[in-house]
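Backbone-to-sequence.
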């Protein structure tokens, strides 16, 4: 298991995940933060980036905020 600190920017024009200099990640997602759509898109983006299934990505904390801790792996 690996944990990532992710800062999410919903409503962006592009959907991308970039690593910052301090070791955290910045995720830009197109979806609005309504009914968990941005969280679903974030999980799919991380899974695609790391070559995992969406089921292998879970949000451990920050589900309702922009700063999240995401766990990836088995």
């Amino acid at each position: 298991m690996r944990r990532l600190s992710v800062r999410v920017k919903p409503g962006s024009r592009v959907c991308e995940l970039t690593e910052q200099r301090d070791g955290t990640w910045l995720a830009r997602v197109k979806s609005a933060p309504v009914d968990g759509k941005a969280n679903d898109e974030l999980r799919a983006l991380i899974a695609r980036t790391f070559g995992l299934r969406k089921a292998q990505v879970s949000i451990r904390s920050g589900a309702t905020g922009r700063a999240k801790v995401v766990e990836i792996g088995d």
